[in-house]
Amino acid sequence: MNRLQKYIIHNLSILFLSIFLPLFAIASVIFLIKLATYTAVIHLTIWEMTKLYFFILPEVLFYTLPVTFFIASVLTLFRLSTDNEIVVLFSLGITPSFIIKTLLKPALLLTILLSFDFFILFPHATVLSSNFVSYKKSEAKFNLSASEFGHRFGDWLLYIGKDNANGTFGDVFLFNKNQKEEILIEAKKAEVINDGGLLSLKLSDGEGYNYSTQKFSQINFKTMHINDTLTTKLTTYRTPLEYWKSNDRKESKTHMFITDTLLSLFPVISLFLVVSIGVVHVRHQKAKVYLYLFLGILVFYAATLGLQKILIFYTIPTVAIVWLVSTYIIYRKTIVARF
Question: What ranges do the domains of the chain cover?
């Protein structure tokens, strides 16, 4: 029995890899194209693009692993059927339940891996990706250089006279106007300070003028920090449970939680359907295998996505139980009744 199980698992692993690698490559290209849209807003190096790709890797796996396992399992049994090996096994007294038990081990392993992926890795990777993009966007807004045109610096209008060789700026003017007063600041030197995501402007050797209808004042300074600037909005969380329970992007996270939970369970709760589709009579059912394969995936995804607005979190037990019961009925009528 152990040798037979190893033989089935060996055939499954070969097909799994041959299907997974192309699907993974296609999904990766799609996500990389999506990441490339960031370059319209921020400057990214190849290394930074690679970091962003690793951040979205847990999400890419959910687009490939469950579907790959389902397809590979069905095609493994279909190949054994076309080679008449399934007929030999059944004639030797091997029951269909033995095949389900054999496939249950890798299915459980994949379900555990997917659950860990979306519940633990996904929050961490999502927060890192969001913080990285926010930081780069804030940094991009400080892409300052000397020109005849001014810059927007928070509530200030900023003019830079020249760029210094050490990354600082010279002959800097800032202007701020509100309903009650106007402020003009002139400095010989300025540099951008990045303090943990808080970007500010450090001015050296300058003068400041404050004037309104009632008064006029002047100050001289050696150093001045303009902190009324752009702050990077960084997301923080301590545990994955805290991330999923927080109200930030609640609707999006609810959709992701329901979808990923059901996709994690998909390999286990679809085993009856796998055997029902994969174990065939070659003469009469060969042409229908790929149709049933496509319909099985389509119906599960449609139920998972379509019922969320109506049932919300009750979608998880409803879809899982109905899918398991209905596929078991199909299994009883198509496989157990014949073998």
Answer: 2-139+236-336, 151-226
